[in-house]
Amino acid sequence: MTTLILGMLIFIGVHSLRIVADGWRGSVVARLGEHKFKGLYSLAAAVGFGLIVWGFGQARQAPVALWARPAWGPHAGAALMLPAFILIVGPYLGRSHINVALRHPMLCGTILFGIAHLLANNLLADLILFGGFAAWAAIDLVSALARDRRNGRVMPPPVTSHTVRQIAVGTAVWAAFGIYLHRLMFGVAPFGI
Which terminal Cβ of the chain has fewer Cβ within 10 Å, N or C? Predict the structure, then answer.
């Protein structure tokens, strides 16, 4: 469990610099340059992610159940992942109505991702991993929206074709994970097939 927690602290810590130390982050970027900063940032995030994967695998070897998982939980979780995927792919697919309305769709999708996985799972490791990501994303969303207000960020007008593309791509990714990739990568078939 220690490796999982350490990985979460590193990964989420790196991704929380704008929340807790935006001024310091800006001064480091100015001193190092954006490319060097992004390289170090990516390296730290990769180390954290690697520790998360390793630690989660270790923690699942000695499972600690925290609550009785409802029979409908996995089905609700799989269904909730559809809007989660549509939101998570959003920032890469242009000015959709969804992206413009939510401003930070990936953070919203990460919250749904965490909740969906907590509906389907009931172990301590799941709570640390998925609950940790959902809680961090909620805090980061509040911080990002406040930063947008402070900076007077104005969203560009949405484009309908971008909205259609986002929904189509998100749905395709959801189906691919539900039918094949999740089972291949994690040994669990969310759709039961």
Answer: C
